[in-house]
Amino acid sequence: MNNNKTYSVSETKDVETFFHGYAADFDSIYGHTKKRSVWDKFLDKYFRRSMRLRYDLVMKFTADKKIQTILDVGCGGGVYCEALLSAGKTVTGLDIADGMLKLAKQKTKKFIEQGKVKYIHSGYLEYDFKEKFDTAALVGFFDYIKEPLDVFIKLEKETSKELLMSFPKSGGFLGWQRKVRYKMRNCPLYYYSKSDLELLFAKVGWQNKVEIINIDRDFFVRVVF
Ligand SMILES: C[S@@+](CC[C@H](N)C(=O)[O-])C[C@H]1O[C@@H](n2cnc3c(N)ncnc32)[C@H](O)[C@@H]1O
C-alpha cells in the first residue's frame, strides 16, 4: 500500500467555520439546544432516519465488553460521547469546531469531572495520538473529507479492534438540498457510492475486514482488525 501522505488540510478551515456557526442547529436535530422549525421537523421525520440507524449500530457494536476505549472523531456536540460514557466506556472526543466541543463538554460535564472523557480541539489529520484506542467512531465525518485514504491510514495506526464509520450516499431530494445548502455556506461536502467505498477499502487493504451496511441515506461501515 502506498503510504505517502497526501493530507489535504486546505478545506478544513471552511469546515471548521461552518460547524462552529452551525453547532446549535446541528445539535437540535437530536432534540438538544435550539427549537426546530416546522421545515426542520419535516426533514427530521422523513429524511433523517439514517441518523437514528447509525446511532443504533454504533451502540450495538460498542456494547461488546472487549471495547473499552473509544475515539470519537468529529464528535460534534457530543451525543455519541454522552451515550458511550453512559454505557461505561472511556471516550476521547476530537473535533475541529470549538462551538461543537463546547456543547459536548456541557453534555458530559460529570464524566469530565470523573476523568472518563477528554476532548481535543483539532482536525483529525493534524493531531497524532500516542495511545491506541479499541474502537474509533467516525459518524457524519467523511461527508467533509476530501481524501478518506489518508484518514484510513492514520486510523489503522491508532485503533486496535474496530472502526465504525458512516458515508453519505448521493442522490435524492435531501442529498440535493443539502449540497445546495452547504455550497451556499462554503462548506465542502462529499458523497460516496458503494463502488467508491469498495475501491477505497481495496486500496487500503481492508477488503476482507470490512462490512458495508446499507442504511437509508448512508452506508454504515464496520472494519474489524
Ligand atoms: C455532522 S457532525 C457529526 C457529529 C457527531 N459525530 C454526530 O454524528 O452527532 C460532523 C462533525 O465533524 C467535524 N469535523 C469535520 N471535519 C473534521 C476534521 N477534519 N477533523 C475533526 N473534526 C472534523 C465537524 O466540526 C462536526 O462537528
Main sheet attributes: strand count, strand direction, barrel closure: 7 strands, mixed
In total, the number of strands is 7
Tell me roughly what share of residues is in helical segments: 40-55%
CATH superfamily: Vaccinia Virus protein VP39
What this model shows, in words?
This protein has a single domain (20-224), classed as Vaccinia Virus protein VP39 (Rossmann fold, 3-Layer(aba) Sandwich). The protein has a 7-stranded mixed sheet. Mean pLDDT is 88; it is low at 1-10. The longest helix is centred in the N-terminal third of the chain and has 18 residues, at 12-29. It has helices at 12-29, 38-47, 49-62, 79-86, 98-107, 109-113, 148-158, 172-184, 194-204, and strands at residues 69-73, 90-95, 117-121, 133-138, 159-168, 210-215, 218-224. Helix content is 44%, strand content 20%. Helix 7 (148-158) packs across helix 9 (194-204). The chain has 225 residues and is an alpha/beta fold. Bound molecules: S-adenosylmethionine. S-adenosylmethionine binds at residues 12, 15, 19, 26, 74-76, 79-80, 94-97, 100, 123-124, 139-141, 144.
Task: Please outline the helices and strands.
Layout: H1 12-29, H2 38-47, H3 49-62, E1 69-73, H4 79-86, E2 90-95, H5 98-107, H6 109-113, E3 117-121, E4 133-138, H7 148-158, E5 159-168, H8 172-184, H9 194-204, E6 210-215, E7 218-224
Parallel strand pairs: 1-2, 1-4, 2-3, 4-5
Antiparallel strand pairs: 5-7, 6-7
Bound molecules: S-adenosylmethionine.
S-adenosylmethionine is lined by residues 12, 15, 19, 26, 74-76, 79-80, 94-97, 100, 123-124, 139-141, 144.
